[in-house]
């Protein structure tokens, strides 16, 4: 009994300490990036430790005055929100059909969709650029929205399928007996019951779309360029401007960090509801 009590006391102390250590290790790069954003480009490359520099807002004023930050930020919001909505509009009916009216090939289709995430993006980069330029879609919001939604659609369908599988089929059948059609079942029964899972899927999809850099950098130039393009633009033949680069990166990851902080409970609940089973 004493050994169990000592072990329990050790766990209560050691586990929180270990959790804080791991959290600090993961958070330190973001913290250091934030500090570097308040340095000049000259100070950013000096081997100064943490606070041994004179803070300045030069990088942030330069970002808004000379680089039109708000245009890039608005493009990120437009494309990420639109891609998330489109992925859900397509993903919810697909996951509904696979969960409540499966066929022999349902599992094979799910595995095939997941296997598309294994395709190297570089393998289809040139055909994508060639085709989009030839039909006039290159550097448009429509192209970015379609690409972001389609590359995240397999994950959306997989997560929603897992959530929907936890809902008893008897409830759906009761809705059919009451005269509901397919859309009525989705609207009146499925969405209210799986709202937590749908919300967490939407949050994760939005984060994936916001953080996507490979396609947004290579399929845009000016009109539909997102914050990833702005970050990539702080590079010159003479090297990287670390101060300005840190400021732009901080402004890009800041909204996602804040969103994740306020929605962490919903994210954890949604993931543990069924997506990781």
Give the count of helical stretches: 14
Distance between the termini: 35 Å
Provide the CATH architecture: Orthogonal Bundle
Strand content: under 5%
Q: Residue share in helices?
A: over 70%
Name the overall outline. globular
Q: Identify the strand order in the major beta sheet.
A: 1-2
Q: Would you tell me which CATH topology applies?
A: MetI-like fold
Largest sheet: 2 strands, antiparallel
- Spell the H/E element sequence: HHHHHHHHHHHHEEHH
**CATH homologous superfamily assignment:** MetI-like
Arithmetic mean pLDDT: 84
Q: Cα-atom Rg, whole angstroms?
A: 23 Å
Total count of strands: 2
Secondary structural class? mainly alpha
Uncertain regions spanning at least 5 consecutive residues: none
Name of the level-1 CATH class: Mainly Alpha
Describe the model.
This protein has 14 helices and two strands, in the order H-H-H-H-H-H-H-H-H-H-H-H-E-E-H-H. The chain is an all-alpha fold. The protein has one domain: MetI-like (MetI-like fold, Orthogonal Bundle), CATH 1.10.3720.10. Strands 1-2 form a two-stranded antiparallel ribbon. It is globular and about 70 Å long. The mean pLDDT is 84.
Q: How are the secondary structure elements laid out?
A:
Layout: H1 2-36, H2 41-44, H3 58-66, H4 69-100, H5 106-115, H6 125-134, H7 141-165, H8 169-177, H9 182-193, H10 195-211, H11 214-218, H12 227-233, E1 235-236, E2 239-240, H13 242-262, H14 264-275
Antiparallel strand pairs: 1-2
């Amino acid at each position: 009994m004493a050994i169990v009590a000592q072990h329990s006391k050790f766990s209560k102390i050691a586990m929180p300490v270990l959790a804080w250590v791991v959290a600090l290790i993961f958070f330190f790069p973001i913290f250091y990036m934030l500090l570097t954003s308040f340095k000049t480009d000259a100070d950013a490359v000096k081997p100064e430790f943490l606070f041994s520099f004179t803070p300045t807002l030069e990088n942030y004023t330069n970002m808004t005055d000379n680089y039109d930050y708000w245009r890039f930020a608005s493009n990120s919001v437009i494309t990420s929100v639109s891609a998330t909505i489109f992925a859900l509009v397509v993903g919810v009916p697909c996951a509904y059909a696979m969960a409540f009216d499966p066929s022999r090939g349902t599992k094979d289709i799910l595995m095939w969709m997941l296997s598309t995430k294994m395709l190297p993006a570089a393998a289809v980069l040139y055909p994508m650029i060639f085709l989009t330029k030839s039909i006039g879609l290159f550097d448009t919001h429509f192209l970015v929205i379609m690409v972001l939604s389609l590359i995240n659609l397999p994950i959306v369908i997989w997560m929603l399928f897992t959530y929907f599988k936890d809902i008893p089929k008897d409830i759906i059948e009761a809705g059919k007996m009451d005269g509901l059609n397919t859309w009525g079942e989705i609207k009146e029964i499925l969405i209210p019951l799986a709202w937590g899972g749908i919300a967490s899927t939407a949050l994760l999809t939005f984060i994936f779309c916001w953080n996507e850099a490979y396609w947004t950098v290579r399929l845009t130039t000016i009109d539909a360029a997102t914050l990833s393009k702005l970050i990539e633009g702080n590079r010159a033949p003479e090297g990287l401007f670390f101060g300005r680069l840190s400021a732009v990166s901080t402004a890009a990851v800041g909204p996602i960090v804040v969103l994740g902080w306020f929605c962490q409970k919903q994210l954890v609940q949604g993931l543990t509801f069924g997506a990781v089973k």
